[in-house]
Structure formats: C-alpha cells, structure tokens
Amino acid sequence: MNDLEQQIDFLLFCQKQDWKLARENYASLANVQTRYFQEDYRTTVLQFNPERIRSSAAKIDKASLQARPCFFCHRPEEQKGVTYNDAFEILVNPYPIFKDHLTVPLRWHERQQIKPYYGDLLDIVSDLSGYVLFYNGPKCGASAPDHMHFQAGRKEEFPVVRNWLNFRKRAVWERGRTSLYASVGLLPVCFILVSGDRSEAVAAFGLLYDRMPMGPEDYEPMMNVAVWKEEEVWITCIFPRRELRSSCYYAEGDANILISPATVEMAGLFVVPLEKDFKKVTFADLEKVWEEVSITEDEKNELIRKIREEA
Ligand SMILES: [Zn+2]
C-alpha cells in the first residue's frame, strides 16, 4: 500500500466515524439489497438503495443549479480531504453507493469536462490501484455538472472490471502499447482503450473524444467513463451517450422505473431507490435502458469509420 492509499484509508476511517452525515449514510448501506442477473456471459447487479432518491431525481437544470451553492466549493466543516496534486483533491462522498465511495473534485470551480483532465485521471488511478475512477458527463448523471469532478469506488464494486474481457469487441485503432476496441452487438455501446503508455493513452482518448457525436447545445460529447489499472496497463471504458434518461423514467403507472443511468449503471451496477422497481425489474428492462441512452449502432459505426479514416 502506498502513501496515498494509506491516507485515503485513514480519511475514510475518520470521516465515517466523526462526520454524522457520513456515519449515518455509510451505516445505512448495510440495508442495501442486491439482485444478480447472469446473462450474456456477464453479471449485472441491481442494488436497492433508498438513500439514492436524492441523486436519482436530482434537478440539474440551470435554474436549479444557480439556486443552490456548489457543494464542492461550500463544504460542511466536518468534511476533510486529501490534496492529490495542483488540480485535484480527494474527499469522502457522504451519499455513498459503495462502502468506500470517494469524490475527486477540481480545486477550483469549473464546469464538468474530462478532456483536459484525462491525464490526471490516469495518474490518480495509478496511485489508487485498488479503485475504479469514473466520470459522469454534465448531462450523463453528474449531480454537480457545474464543478469538475471524478468519483471512485473499489474495483470489486464494478461488474465491468470482471466482465470486459468477455465482451464481443473488435480493434478500431492500434499504436505502440495502445489499442482501442469497440463493442460488437453488445449493450451498452462501449469503447475500451487499453494502454501501457500514458501519452499514447491521452492521444487515443482525444482521437475518440474529438469525433464523438455532440448536440448543438453541448460543449462536450455525452459520455460516461470508467478507468482502472491492471498490472502496468490502464483500462478505460468509454460509454458514448445520446440521452440523459430512458423512457421508463418518464413513463406513467406500471411502466415507470426510477433509474437515472450514470457510469455505475453503464458499468453493470444499477441503483434503484424504490422497492417496487427493485422487485419487478428484469434484465430486458436494464438492456432497454442501456439501448435508449447509448449512441445507436449507426452512430457507433460512423465513429469507428472516422477514427480509422482520420487517424
Ligand atoms: Zn464549485
């Protein structure tokens, strides 16, 4: 265990003990219930977590955001952190999905955007090798789209870490110690960047990012990203998105399922805050959510074509 991992373990230990909000919310994680789906050569997990009602139904429109103080800039006195580098610090998330749930905000107030900080993301995950670091785009599940941040949880919490080797995929681009793959006939649509070289990984990420489809109102292509390290290799899963939420979120009556997909859902862990949803949801429902929020097969093929043509 390196110095940073020790500091983070100690931070988690102290915050779960000394900070009432964190203590209560981590304690209530013990009441979380879980269902498992074994389909498609992989495991998908459904978690019933009533505490997450706050973020599943979070308002992130401009007026709502302006009406509340930024929770990274205006922190409770009890919240402590560990400084990582000139740009980032590491905090304990007081509204956890997992037993060790971190947030990694930028040290100044700036809107959510990954591209300038993808290199930092690789560095952080190198120093926290037991964790998956992840990024929710401003319209893809981020509850603070106005303040750049990553989140992190232990690797074992993310089904994709075990599942990705079984994914049907094809190579899109290769250079040196870096390969970019695209999922084939699989939901959610996923690009997987495997690299043993930091600067090659940054270049390959930019290659994909710059060619992803983007809405006229947006400043960044919609996406979720999860990164972790295996031995000396970084694995980055990029999930290109076209919708914030799927139709079941807005449906009336029985068809309604309160799921607001972010990186953890794209990575195979669905969190539902309502018991009725936990009981009734099928794997087909989850696949439908993935399908509706992912880019289409046509968009994926167009993206692959552009990367191959322009690279
Ligand atoms: Zn802020």
Features:
single chain, 311 residues, alpha+beta, HIT family, subunit A, ten-stranded antiparallel sheet, three-stranded mixed sheet, 13 strands, 32% helix, binds zinc ion
Describe the structure.
It is a single chain. By secondary structure, the protein is α+β, with helices and mostly antiparallel strands. Helix content is 32%, strand content 24%. The strands form two sheets. It has a ten-stranded antiparallel beta sheet. Strands 1-2-13 form a three-stranded mixed beta sheet. Strand 11 (223-230) and strand 12 (233-240) form a beta hairpin. It is globular, with a radius of gyration of 19 Å. The mean pLDDT is 93. The protein binds zinc ion. The site of zinc ion has 5 residues, from loops.
Topology:
Blueprint: H1 3-18, H2 20-28, E1 33-39, E2 42-48, H3 53-56, H4 62-67, E3 81-83, E4 89-92, E5 102-105, H5 118-127, E6 131-136, E7 149-154, H6 159-163, E8 169-175, E9 178-183, E10 191-195, H7 198-209, E11 223-230, E12 233-240, H8 247-250, H9 263-266, E13 269-272, H10 275-280, H11 283-293, H12 297-310
Parallel strand pairs: 2-13
Antiparallel strand pairs: 1-2, 3-4, 4-5, 5-7, 6-7, 6-11, 8-9, 9-10, 10-12, 11-12
Residues 70, 72-73, 109, 147 line the site of zinc ion (ZN).
Gist of the model:
It is built from 12 helices and 13 strands. It has 311 residues and is an alpha+beta fold.
Number of distinct beta strands: 13
* Gap between N and C termini: 39 Å
**Small-molecule binders:** zinc ion
Q: What top-tier CATH class fits best?
A: Alpha Beta
H/I helix tally: 12
**How would a textbook summarize the main sheet?**
10 strands, antiparallel
- How much of the sequence is in beta strands? 15-25%
Number of domains: 1
Strand order, sheet with most strands: 3-4-5-7-6-11-12-10-9-8
